[in-house]
Amino acid sequence: GDSVTQMEGPVTLSEEAFLTINCTYTATGYPSLFWYVQYPGEGLQLLLKATKADDKGSNKGFEATYRKETTSFHLEKGSVQVSDSAVYFCALSGGGGDYKLSFGAGTTVTVRA
Amino acid sequence: GAVVSQHPSWVICKSGTSVKIECRSLDFQATTMFWYRQFPKQSLMLMATSNEGSKATYEQGVEKDKFLINHASLTLSTLTVTSAHPEDSSFYICSAREYGYTFGSGTRLTVV
C-alpha cells in the first residue's frame, strides 16, 4: 500500500537557519504530494502541494519539488523564523485512485530566537 | 477559502456517556469526509471515510459500533463516540476531500 517515510525529529534550529525535512514515498500510480503544518492544539493547514512529477510547490518561503525518480518530496526553507515552530507532516493521496491521505510520522520543528 | 468548522474544540465527558463531534463545510459541499484520530506527538490515523448519503467505510481495527459516523448532508458530517472510556481520549480531526483536503481545527476529547 501507499506509505510515507518522513525524517524524524525533533529538529531545533536558530532563527534564519536553513531548514530541510526529508520525505520519501511509496505509491502505485501517480500520487499527489502534500506538506501540512500543525500548530499546538490545532488542526492541519495545507502548506503546499504538488500533483505531478517535477512540480514545485511553494508557500510562505517553503518549497518542495516532486521528484519521481527518487520518490521524494523534501521540504525546504532558506531562513526560518520563530513562528515556523510547528509539526510538519508529509502526505500523499490518490496513487491508485484512492483519495485517502497517507501521512508521515510528522517532524517537530522548534526555532529559537 | 474553503473552511471546515469543527465543534466542539474540546470536550470532557464521563465514562459511559456519548459525545458527538460535528464538522460543517461552510462554503462548499463536502461529498467525502475523512475522520482521523491523533495521539499525542503522533501522526494522524485514519478512522473512517464517509460519503454523503451512504454508510461510512471504516479502517481495519476501528469499531464501527463505537465510532458512529453520519454524513446526512453535503455540509455536515458527525462522529459520535458511544459509551466513551478513558482510552478514547484523543484528538479527533475531520477533513473534507475538496480543495486539496480541508481540515477542521480538531476536537480534544478527554474521558474521565
Explain what you see:
Chain A has 113 residues and is mainly beta. Chain A contains no helices and twelve strands. In chain A, the strands form three sheets. In chain A, strands 2, 5, 6, 10, 11 and 12 form a six-stranded mixed sheet that branches. In chain A, strands 3-9-8-7 form a four-stranded antiparallel sheet, with no helix packed on it. Chain A has a two-stranded antiparallel sheet with strand order 1-4. In chain A, a hairpin with a 5-residue loop joins strand 5 (32-38) and strand 6 (44-50). Chain A is globular. Chain B has 112 residues and is an all-beta fold. Chain B is 0% helix and 53% strand. Chain B is built from no helices and eleven strands. In chain B, strands 2, 4, 5, 6, 9, 10 and 11 form a seven-stranded mixed sheet that branches. A four-stranded antiparallel sheet of chain B has the order 1-3-8-7, with no helix packed on it. In chain B, a hairpin with a 5-residue loop joins strand 5 and strand 6. Chains A and B meet through strand 6 of A and strand 5 and strand 10 of B.
Q: How would you summarize this macromolecular structure in one to three sentences?
A:
Helices cover 0% and strands 50% of the residues of chain A. Chain A has 113 residues and is mostly beta strands.
Beta strands of chain A, count = 12
- Structural class estimated from helices and strands of chain A: mainly beta
Helix content of chain B: under 10%
Largest interface: A-B, 19 and 20 residues
Itemize the secondary structure elements and their pairings:
The complex is a heterodimer of chains A (113) and B (112).
Chain A: E1 3-6, E2 11-14, E3 19-21, E4 23-26, E5 32-38, E6 44-50, E7 56-59, E8 62-65, E9 75-77, E10 86-93, E11 101-103, E12 107-112
Parallel strand pairs in A: 2-12
Antiparallel strand pairs in A: 1-4, 3-9, 5-6, 5-10, 7-8, 8-9, 10-11, 10-12
Chain B: E1 4-7, E2 10-13, E3 19-25, E4 32-38, E5 44-51, E6 57-58, E7 67-73, E8 76-81, E9 90-96, E10 102-103, E11 107-111
Parallel strand pairs in B: 2-11
Antiparallel strand pairs in B: 1-3, 3-8, 4-5, 4-9, 5-6, 7-8, 9-10, 9-11
